[in-house]
Amino acid sequence: MRQNAVGSRVRTLAADAVPTRLALADAPSALVGARGAVDRAGRPLLLLKPGEPLRSALNAACDAAVTVNLAVTRRIGDEERPRALLRIQGWAAPVPAPERREAAVLIAERHPDEDLFLALEYPGEPAFPLLARVDVATVMYVAGRDHGTLDAEDYLAAEPDPIAGAAERMLAHVNESHRESLAHAMTHALRRPAPPAEVWLWELDRFGATVQVGPDQIRFPWPEPATCPRALEHALQTLLTP
Fold it and tell me: What element of type H or E holds 92?
């Protein structure tokens, strides 16, 4: 994939990701649970509770080197399945005062917690929760068969897919109403004598579509990036009509 396509795809995945585990750089195997969100710049936001390792580290220093694992899932039928895993390495520090309220709102959307009020009311107090943000150094990603590493410059310079909202609506519509057409298209595209047992549209974005075919995920890039929802709809229709 082209670098701008990779960066955009990873930033789009990050926008839907939630932190699941984190570790201090000096104890990488000591993973602990994480709660939070990802801000509009692609940086992890964390709600840290008193006594947690990173909370204690930030009591003693202005920042701390960390690794944060993030997960992205996809609902397929009645099942929630892993869609992508991201591992962000960087430096955690308290969220600056002017940005605390926005950070709390973003976290509340993903992980409602009454301790967010305490973090806003008693910022920086060691006995209370703390809002922290991770400045990105590197991002490792695994999404289906695609995997790799982005440095901070490439990751932060990329923009999430601007038509991601429309893409998700189209994806849901295909999976709810047009899986038979998708299976027929995959039979032709993969030159199989019969439709695969299980076919789902897994990802859809301006650069292409990923289809779940049985245990495999197959990427179908568009000849040109879709620049608007209408162009994306046309590209998807081409995929569904072999």
Answer: strand 79-94
**32: its two tokens:** 């602990």
Question: Amino acid letter at 117?
Answer: F
Instruction: List helix spans (H) across 92-228.
Output: 100-110, 115-121, 152-157, 164-177, 179-189
CATH number for 151:
2.30.110.10
Domain boundary among 157, 189, 204: 157
Would you give the distance in Å from CA 29 to the centre of its chain? 23
Q: Considering only CA atoms, which of 24, 27, 25, 22 is closest in space to residue 71?
A: 22
Report whether 81 contacts 198 (CB < 8 A): no
As for how many domains the chain has, the answer is 2
pLDDT value for 170 = 97
> What stretches in the chain show pLDDT beneath 50?
1
Same domain for 101 and 25:
yes
Range of the domain at 233: 164-240
Residue 104 and residue 17 share a domain: yes
Please list the residues that pair with 36 across neighbouring strands: 46
Task: Provide the residue type at 34 as one letter.
Answer: A
Residues 6+ apart with CB under 8 A from 67: 22, 23, 25, 28, 87, 88, 89
pLDDT tens column, 94-131:
999 999 999 999 999 998 999 999 999 999 899 999 99
Asked if 209 and 228 sit in the same domain, the reply is yes
